[in-house]
Specification:
Pfam families: V-set (PF07686). It contains 1 helix and 11 strands. It is mainly beta. It has one domain: Immunoglobulins (Immunoglobulin-like).
Length: about 130
């Protein structure tokens, strides 16, 4: 039993920083590694500590203010792509975004920083959620 548990473990890979100009569409790259289907996982995207997007059991919930602006590339979930698309980047969208994937007992998180093109990127240690 222990062997299959180890076999099922995964990690998230992402970039530290994403830059865009106001008005552009932005993709926050995040992938399950090794490449495994994420269709049956729970995927949450947070801005700071606020959950802005939830995918669970094929159902999607978007936070007010993000409705119609955030989405996953659902046809890519089968390949472990849990990247978030954000339409019409606004100045208020700047900040740290956290991708959280839960499968069974395992929960992994990856943080990305969104900045205006040309701005500095930095992720403060300890930004990960403990939920």
């Amino acid at each position: 039993m222990e062997e299959s548990r180890v076999h099922n473990q995964f990690q998230l890979t992402s970039e530290d920083c994403v830059r865009a100009d106001v008005g552009e569409d932005v993709t926050f790259p995040c992938h399950v590694s090794p490449e495994t289907s994420a269709v049956s996982t729970t995927i949450r995207w947070f801005k700071e500590t606020e959950c802005i997007y939830l995918y669970k059991n094929g159902q999607v919930t978007e936070r007010s203010g993000y409705e119609g602006r955030v989405s996953l590339i659902t046809q890519e979930l089968e390949r472990g792509n849990v990247s978030l698309r954000l339409r019409d980047y606004r100045e208020s969208d700047r900040g740290v975004y956290i991708c959280q994937v839960i499968h069974g007992e395992q929960k992994e998180e990856a943080a990305l920083c969104l900045r205006v093109r040309g701005g500095k990127c930095s992720i403060t240690p300890g930004m990960f959620l403990n939920t």
